[in-house]
Fold this protein.
Amino acid sequence: MNAFTQPSIPTLDAVSYRLIESLREALAAQESAAPQAVYRSGLKLCSHLLSRYAAPAACPPAKVALAPWQERRAKEMMAQGIAGQLSIAKVAQACALSRSHFSRAFKKNTGVSPRDWLLSARVDRAKQLLAASPLPIAQIGEECGFADQSHFTRTFSRLAGCTPLNWRQAEAAAQAPVAGPRQIGHYPWG
């Protein structure tokens, strides 16, 4: 405190004064109804003091969310780094956030963690390669950033519901041309 500031002297408002007086009178009363009167007076005084002098409620915590540019940048980096060893810390750094804050904000924006989003993107890329190229499954897994074929198969099965081989076969069958209806009873010789 310096010479120019004076300590604030608490003042009592008129309502508080009246409530304190009613409490004092209830405490001084020697009647059988005195405990209820003390309780009511004390309750009124506490209620008034809390409503008038309580500190304002704390502001709710700021929403943890990524700005649109941060979400776009993170998804671009992860999509480009599907085949590599991209760390979440590098993506967070590119978004100017700590790793933990980035992870929480990314999940709030997308509904999935950055790791799960990246795994899903890898599986989506693998589906494209399985459908469009004759590459071996192990090589597709490697190109999509999986450690080995076993890791690729486990992750693909968990997310797609079937193994990469079964998915490739089902996709090939769906893409095969369907033969037209066969005409029964029509023979070229007669």
Notes: The two ends are 118 Å apart (CA to CA). The CA atoms of residues 73 and 95 lie 7 Å apart.
